[in-house]
């Protein structure tokens, strides 16, 4: 649209803004000649500044920070420089826009320094009118049609926060206080905790060190709105000349526009609630290899009685979904599996092969669970745990259980009649005949046999524990900022991994051993290998503590749950974030992958279990019933049942087969996020089991599908 362009250039010349005019000329000539697209202009509140960006015809306009043109990495500008207006981010629902010339719109997500971050609040708006602006918009949204109202209501919270922070930053303290008091009650209930933090920020000085504030400011709040609702809002704000709000929409929000029907209140409520709004649709587009790796082939020596069981059951193996290959010993590669050598995995030792054989024999006697056949539950209660039980794990073969305690100890129990023994001393070992058949028995020292071993070494509460798959090692992570690797042969500490500077909330071994992941208060998750001092990967992106971590069954991905109320899926190979799931209304405390690798279940302080389809990047279910934080989630060995354990002292069993059958994962749903969750999750609930007064902190299905649960009895 050359006329607009010429008009803007003339306006800049009249206003004596030569520098802006030059920039515009340079870019517009490129854009004009190479694109043939229309040029969108944005009016800003700084006197006479206009930023211009190209919008190719028919593409979505999503607001945000970006540079347009070959050198798009912007330095934090000084406020008041001639080119300090907001600028348009160009994004389309289909793909990144790159154009035939050397011009591309590049999305830059850099974390600027504090002063640059806050300086964006240097607005010249009249502080006394903020309440009027906000209530005007509120009135407009509440009077709009039902179909638009639900979508536009998403604007209330981010606008409220930014307008409040702007008032505080510009030292209009009384106006800020009155603005907060008048409108904070209108915000959705799941933002209460954030509003509590916000209410304590009443002076400009408070804003400097406040992380929540800085996050809100640097990460654009993402809203997903249909094109019709967006046009309605744009028209209203431009007619009303309501620049203050329009500037905030431009500067601080990222509006992800989709074509099609606006979403209903239920659909929106299911997906919102995280610290930075919803995930951009682009964030969940990358391909994820969620299939399982092919099991190594080796002969299983079968007993006669096992022969029939083996053929009926298919190839019983923990990590294989038996749904798909009952009766056939399928060795086919899963089409969704990553290449076998995508990440280097440790070689199988002879002892591992023996263990796999044992596993298969156990699995041949496995109970097939379902709505008609629920598992028995065996509950391990920690009595008199006045040391404060903070973490539990159970070995895959259910022979040992470990507790992490607030008194910084790690305690390992044997739950079979076989006692825990250490290896003999070096002097005694030299006397053993190394050729004898029972050499593995002889090296153990009977004098050390006991059913409990206590491991000392941490200097703070132990928040996470994890056994290695081969049961030779144990990981523990603590408030002291370290992750420790213990030997279960000698019951001593082998390594202390130092990388986190703050408490480490969770750690977990890869299902193949060797690799492990940790997540902590420093907001990052780290991937380690047992033989490296330094982490191999650092997964950064969460806006608050990483509270729980889980490996995907194929070990190529890691899921992390955070206090920012989002779940992220990371690619171990390159460290990229490949999925962002929003929908929980509180910090995430438990994660579980389905045995076939296709689905993820997550639990949080909001008492809801959410189910996600990893391949399509969609929420596919919501299980309501718990009344407190969900600390434990586990799928049965074949994936028919999902067990959840909570601080409300109950274990609940859910029908996973029914939850995941006939999912709507057509292209439309995937593209727009129009998810339709069943109204009532009660028909998926198969059973609720109360403990007397014991919060459930860990769940584990044995190889035969007996459910083990654990927690510490609390007397109050």
Automatic annotation (TrEMBL):
It comes from the Eukaryota. Residues 300-311 have a biased composition (Acidic residues). Its main location: nucleus. WD repeats lie at residues 382-423, 455-490, 497-528, 539-580, 581-614, 623-655. CDD domains: TAF5_NTD2, WD40. Keywords: Nucleus, Repeat, Transcription, Transcription regulation, WD repeat. Residues 56-84, 300-352 are annotated as: Disordered. Belongs to the WD repeat TAF5 family. The TFIID basal transcription factor complex plays a major role in the initiation of RNA polymerase II (Pol II)-dependent transcription. TFIID recognizes and binds promoters with or without a TATA box via its subunit TBP, a TATA-box-binding protein, and promotes assembly of the pre-initiation complex (PIC). The TFIID complex consists of TBP and TBP-associated factors (TAFs), including TAF1, TAF2, TAF3, TAF4, TAF5, TAF6, TAF7, TAF8, TAF9, TAF10, TAF11, TAF12 and TAF13. The TFIID complex structure can be divided into 3 modules TFIID-A, TFIID-B, and TFIID-C. This is Transcription initiation factor TFIID subunit 5. It comes from Callaeas wilsoni (North Island kokako).
């Amino acid at each position: 649209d050359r006329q607009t362009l010429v008009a803007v250039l003339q306006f800049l010349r009249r206003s004596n803004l030569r520098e802006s005019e030059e920039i515009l000329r340079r870019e517009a000539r490129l854009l004009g000649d190479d694109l043939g697209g229309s040029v969108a202009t944005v009016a800003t509140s700084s006197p006479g500044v206009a930023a211009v960006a190209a919008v190719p015809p028919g593409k979505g306009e999503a607001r945000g920070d970006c540079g347009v043109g070959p050198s798009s990495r912007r330095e934090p500008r000084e406020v008041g420089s001639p080119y300090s207006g907001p600028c348009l981010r160009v994004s389309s629902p289909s793909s990144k826009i790159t154009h035939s010339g050397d011009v591309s719109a590049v999305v830059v997500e850099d974390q600027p320094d504090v002063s640059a971050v806050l300086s964006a609040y240097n607005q010249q708006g009249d502080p006394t009118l903020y309440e009027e602006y906000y209530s005007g918009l509120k009135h407009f949204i509440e009077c709009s049609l039902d179909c638009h109202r639900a979508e536009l209501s998403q604007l209330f919270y981010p606008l409220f926060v930014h307008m409040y922070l702007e008032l505080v930053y510009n030292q209009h303290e009384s106006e800020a206080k009155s603005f907060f008091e008048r409108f904070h009650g209108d915000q959705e209930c799941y933002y209460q905790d954030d509003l509590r933090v916000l209410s304590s920020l009443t002076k400009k000085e408070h804003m400097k060190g406040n992380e929540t504030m800085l996050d809100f400011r640097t990460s654009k709040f993402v809203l997903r709105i249909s094109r019709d609702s967006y046009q309605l809002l744009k028209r209203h704000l431009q007619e009303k000349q309501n620049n203050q709000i329009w500037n905030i929409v431009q500067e601080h929000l990222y509006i992800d526009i989709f074509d099609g029907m606006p979403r209903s209140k239920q659909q929106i409520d299911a997906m919102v609630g995280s610290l930075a709004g919803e995930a951009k649709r682009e964030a969940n587009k990358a391909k994820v290899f969620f299939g399982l790796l092919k099991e190594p082939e080796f002969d299983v020596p079968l007993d006669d009685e096992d022969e029939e069981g083996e053929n009926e059951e298919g190839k019983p193996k923990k990590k294989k979904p038996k749904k798909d290959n009952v009766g056939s010993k399928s060795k086919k590669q899963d089409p969704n599996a990553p290449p076998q050598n995508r990440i280097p995995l440790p070689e199988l030792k002879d002892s591992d092969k023996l263990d796999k054989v044992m596993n298969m024999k156990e699995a041949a006697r496995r109970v097939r669970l379902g709505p008609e056949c629920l598992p028995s539950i065996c509950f391990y209660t920690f009595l008199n745990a006045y040391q404060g039980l903070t973490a539990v794990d159970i070995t895959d073969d259910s022979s040992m259980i470990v507790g992490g305690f607030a008194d910084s100890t790690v305690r390992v129990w044997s739950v079979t009649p076989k006692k825990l023994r250490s290896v003999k001393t070096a002097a005694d070992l030299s006397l053993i005949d190394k050729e004898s058949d029972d050499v593995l028995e002889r090296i153990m020292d009977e004098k050390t046999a006991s059913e409990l071993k206590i491991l000392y070494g941490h200097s703070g509460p132990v928040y996470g524990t994890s056994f290695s798959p081969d049961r030779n090692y144990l990981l523990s992570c603590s408030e002291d900022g370290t992750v420790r690797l213990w030997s279960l042969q000698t019951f001593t500490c082998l390594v202390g991994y130092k990388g986190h500077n703050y408490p480490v909330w969770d750690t977990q071994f890869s299902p193949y051993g060797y690799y492990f992941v940790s997540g902590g208060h420093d907001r990052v998750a780290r991937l380690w290998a047992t033989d490296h001092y330094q982490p191999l990967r650092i997964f950064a992106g969460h806006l608050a503590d990483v509270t729980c971590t889980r490996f995907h069954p194929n070990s190529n991905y890691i899921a992390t749950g955070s206090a920012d109320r989002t779940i992220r899926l990371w690619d171990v190979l390159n460290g990229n974030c490949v999925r962002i799931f929003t929908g929980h209304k509180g910090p995430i405390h438990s994660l579980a992958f389905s045995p076939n690798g296709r689905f993820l279940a997550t639990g949080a302080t909001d008492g809801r279990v959410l189910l996600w389809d990893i391949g399509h990047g969609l929420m596919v279910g919501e299980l309501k019933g718990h009344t407190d934080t969900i600390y434990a989630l586990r799928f049965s060995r074949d994936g028919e049942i999902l067990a959840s354990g909570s601080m409300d002292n109950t274990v609940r069993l859910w029908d996973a087969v029914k939850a995941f059958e006939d999912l709507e994962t057509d292209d439309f749903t995937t593209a727009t996020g129009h998810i339709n969750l069943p109204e009532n999750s009660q028909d998926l609930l198969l059973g609720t089991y109360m403990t007397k007064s014991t919060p459930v902190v860990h769940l584990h299905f044995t190889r035969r599908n007996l459910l083990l649960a654990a927690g510490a009895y609390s007397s109050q």
